[in-house]
Amino acid sequence: MGDEKANRGSTRYGALDGLRGLAAAVVVIHHCFLVSPSLSLAVSGVDAGQVEPWVWWITFTPLHLLWAGTEAVYVFFILSGFVLTLPSAGGSQPTWLAYYAKRFFRIYLPVWASLAIALLMVWIVPRTGSPDFSAWLLIHDESPNVFADGVLIGGADSLNSPLWSLQWEVLFSLTLPIYVVLALRIRNAWLPCLLTLFSLIAVGTVMYLPAIVYMSMFGIGVLLAVRRDSLEQFGRALSRVKWIGLIASSLLLLSSRWLFPQLSTVICMACIGGALLVFAFIACPPIAKAGNHRILLWLGSRSFSLYLVHEPIVVSIGFVSHVTNPVLLTAIAIPPSLAATEIFFRFAERPALRVAGYVGRFVDTKIRRSPQLLTARP
């Protein structure tokens, strides 16, 4: 999402851009499928034995990975933790005030632009409910709170609901120095700490503590970043058979919420799967090569734009067309979503990147020339 590309620090992981693009595509398909009333009910908790066979196959088997949007966001969080920690893990000494200034514009300018587009879409296509619509589509008939959406810290309303994840992205960005300091100090005990984070996710899920759950996900990426050299070395020692088993395990764990919906630890299991997937894109040459495919790299370079603009388009098409077939709706919605993504990237996200870069350099220069200003380094 609102991450820098994985080319900072001493190592470039281009395949992670491809993984980010793949995750963004899964989120788009996820929302297209939720326009189906049957699938919307299935993901909201209807017992698997009460759904139609085709719904069961798409929802409660590994086929769900094709539209596992929530799990894709978990991967986004782990990726953010990894990528934003790379500069410090690689020996760079960031000026944190410059980082904060840059990060603010990097996230908020595209978000505000996406909210303006969402408001425009609501004006063009009124959100009028119908008995034919899915429960997910009908929540977009509510009056939005644009101010709350623009602040992000309190979550997101129905105007552009993918913004919910940016609440945690912003909170992680604010607390990144703490993560970095702790991770660098405990890097030799990273494995027990990683197990602790997985345990915190499980406990937070049971106790309904979303802050514990989501902020721990970023921590997973942070720990992977500080020990990436060891991970690469370990990956090189794995045979092809072991890699196949690891990747298969990763995918099964990522889909555990749908394979074992009765378990209370499925979010923890999905995060283990997500961490293994990130590891594979870092250290498995065939997977890294696939991640560097030009289509995935294009999606990755525009993943934040795609994430921000697709839902108002999907929702508008759902309200206008009354199409509830998930495959048909996906076929209709993807082309305009991709076109809007390219336009948004060129005229909103890329200019925001330039502004963020300029502001970051300006603040960094001022701080380095003025030692009396507060600087914070890990």
Note the topology:
Elements: H1 14-33, H2 37-43, H3 53-59, H4 69-89, H5 96-124, H6 135-138, H7 146-151, H8 164-185, H9 190-206, H10 210-226, H11 228-237, H12 240-254, H13 256-259, H14 266-283, H15 285-291, H16 294-301, H17 303-321, H18 326-369
Helix pairs in contact: 1-4, 1-15, 1-16, 1-17, 1-18, 2-3, 4-8, 4-10, 4-14, 5-8, 5-17, 5-18, 8-10, 9-10, 9-14, 11-14, 12-14, 14-15, 17-18
Computed CA radius of gyration, to the nearest angstrom: 21 Å
Give the overall shape, derived from the CA principal axes: globular
Into which percent range does the helicity of residues fall?
over 70%
Poorly predicted parts: 4-10
Mean pLDDT: 92
CA-CA gap between termini: 24 Å
Q: Approximately what portion of the residues adopt beta-strand conformation? A: under 5%
How is this structure best described in words?
The protein is mostly helical and 378 residues long. It has one domain. The chain has helices at 14-33, 37-43, 53-59, 69-89, 96-124, 135-138, 146-151, 164-185, 190-206, 210-226, 228-237, 240-254, 256-259, 266-283, 285-291, 294-301, 303-321, 326-369. Helix 1 (14-33) crosses helix 15, helix 1 (14-33) packs across helix 16 and helix 9 packs antiparallel against helix 10. The protein starts with 13 loop residues before the first helix and ends in a 9-residue tail after the last helix.
